[in-house]
Amino acid sequence: MNRKIKGFLCLLCMVAALCSACSRGENADNGNNDANTGGGGVNSNVTIGDSDGAQNIFDDSGEQYLYYASVRSGQFDEKENILYNWDWCLSGSGLFYVTWRDISAENPDKISDNVPFIIGDSRLHYISYEQLFALDDAGKLYIGMTEEMPEKLNDIAQDIDLSNIQDSEISTIAAYGDGVVVFTYKKDADGKIINRSAVFLDGNLNAAVHDITEAAEHAYAVLEERGFSTSANSRYVFDVDGNPYYCQAFSLKGSDSTIYFFNENNSDVKCLSVDYQIKNIISDGQGRAYWMNPGEKKLVCFDFTADGDESDNVSEVCTFDKNTYIDGYTDSTSLWTQDGIYTYSIADRAMTPKLEYERVGIGNGLFDRVRMTGDKDIVAVKFGNNSLSLYCFHESDTLMSEEKIKLRLAVTHNSTSLEDMVRTFNKANGMYEVELDVYDDSSTFMTQLASKSGPDIIDTGRADVSVYADKDYLEDLNVFLGSPDSRIKKDDLLSSMLDASTCNGKLVSMPVRFFPLALIGGDYFSDYTEWTVDDYITLIENNDRLICHNVLNSIGVKGDMIEIYWCGQRDKIIDFANGEAHFDSPEFIRLLKAVNEYDPDKFINDDAESNYWKNDRVYLSLNYITGCKDLMLQEQAMCGQEITFLGFPVNKAVTEPAYAALSSESYGISVNSKNKEGAWEFIQFALRYTNESTAGYPVYIPNIQKMLADSQEKQYKRDSSYNYVTDSDGNPVEDVVYMAEQGNNPIQLAYRALTDEEVDTVLDILDNIEIIIGSTTPMEEIFWEEISGMLDGVQTPEQTAAVLQDRFSLMLMELQ
Q1: Residues of the domain holding 807
Q2: Mean pLDDT, to the nearest integer, of 462-468?
Q3: The three-state (H, E, C) secondary structure of 343-398, written as one string
Q4: Per-residue pLDDT for 465 more than 70?
Q5: How far apart are CA 93 and CA 646, in angstroms?
Q6: Which residue, 98, 329, 304, is CA-closest to 201?
Q7: How far is residue 741's CA from residue 732's CA, in Å, rounded to a whole number?
Q8: Domain end: 399, 427, 461, which one?
Q9: Using CA atoms, how far apart are residues 555 and 567, in angstroms rounded to an integer?
Q10: 3 vs 6, 308, 496, CA distance in Å?
Q11: What's the whole-model pTM score?
Q12: Is 747 part of any domain?
């Protein structure tokens, strides 16, 4: 079993995300509604220009670099850990977030008519940017892609214990410099808040507690006196000359926003109402706050320490030409749109492009927060469905060029999935652009390969790779895998597929995705120690059962029987190295005669497969494994028969099965290419690429890990109240989906999560692939043309073997 795959599966399992926000005890009107999304401020010397809403300067004069990118996610159990939108923030040093656990059932005595709220237990967590960046190996990340990493935020976050500082309930948090401010509160027996504190944690997590009870109550009294709501759903803390100012806002999509500021000295309470939604607020450290007016696409400034009427201290700084969002600090301001991320100078009104989303494979940048971390790296967060997704963008040393180098990819068959991948590569990669050359016939394809002006990359999935290897048309990809600059190494790939794709010691074709094929037998094979070609032909000669359930080849059941032999013996019958064909061998002629005399109509009807196994009417099942759970369904269809994984008949012990793979996608590099490094960039991209349209198993091990982990993720039953259904031991019951077989008299097959043992079975098959099947190569076309003649009764088995011998001998002679 491949332990490289198995070893990391536990990192990839996700917990289910459960319920959205419910009422938290401290979140109510009349000053009891504390909420936060974070913000911050540092000292800077920003001078506001004329407040005329002027246009910005788009400064793209500097050099732009390409980025590596990673994303990690965190999902939170909806019953015990509920993550609200205001319970997280990005500070200068990292991500802080709060999880909350409902403990109402454990404290029934605290629930009363005066305290109808849910009782909760809140906990603070922290992940530093330094910690996140250390997890990313820039040498492994691929330029132009955002890769989903196996680590989950929940598993790598540091829990911060505040119990020795405060015994109060956490209300909300707000970013403050490199650290965070944690707002806490206490209530009396009647549910009235009697204490409010702000716990300041610096970047080293050193704490200082500020009692803000009096200041907050004073602010709320002023607000009520002036007719402002005291509710809030976002909170910020800004530094002004070393003194903290607290900013709270209540803002909903499509409605007005209320913003108010107060300090600990009760000297200033400033209130402002605007007729649009405010998302993020930043400050310059000198008493000025900035936010975006989304409707008019304007940056707004409010001097919250100035005297006079608040409305007189509001000004428009500049206007943007598209919807724009802001975050960070005035000396490190991040702007982002649906297209990319920019740094911004408020003083100069200058936007400098940093990152285009399409250059890292992101469709849009609908982030909630974006922070620059130093000169090169960017962190961004998306929140939704009780989860956080944290993106790390690392600037590379590769300049983004305007003129890309063209790479030609030669294929004999085009598809939507291939076009999607090429389009994604071209958007993401700043150096190369792939152009598709589609050839209708194999002869023109071969001619182009030999041309000095031929393609750079060759689709080898439908090609006679042995021919290319014999003629030295293709590069040995082992050389590229061994290069220090390669982001993908040999250990990252499924070794069995690499070995099966190696010809004459050279890896001339890189498999990317494939479908495994496995022959499975029942009780009949329980005593077998070897699985030989003679055994297989004898089964056909018995003519007493259906040889194989499931049809691989369109010719039908007899063609299916020949395909099983052909897969295992093709490279022996056609010896490219010595230029010899062996279709005239007694063994091959015996096979054709046995198949020709076999009568499948005696055994085939419209019954579902389970009926064949229950009544011993079939020897084998040929499993074309399209997904991880196919084998689980096959085992159920065999109705308790002892399963023997035979592989294809290649004269080996049963304990060493040889499985086959239909290569759905593979590529080689032409020896005549002038851009071989670029061709290798594309192949690396293809190995890691995945989207909804990709099918089959990947060769890239991290993608296999994720695929298998997803297959083990359980779904659990819920009752009408959306609570989990449990068994007698209190364990949740898995929600199993049942489906009927196709055919008459079907049984119900249970579609459920895979067990560890079933995953091991899949891994064993993947580790023992020895045969690569070509789909529509010229060699295959010749073979099946003559076989069809025999199956249609046009020629005898002996005549068929003779014609195949003549045609392949001629073909091999022409290739010499």
Answers
A1: 515-663+753-815
A2: 70
A3: EEECCCCEEEEEEEHHHHCCCCCCCCEEEEECCCEEEEEEEECCEEEEEEEEEEEE
A4: yes
A5: 56
A6: 98
A7: 28
A8: 399
A9: 16
A10: 5, 70, 13
A11: 0.71
A12: no
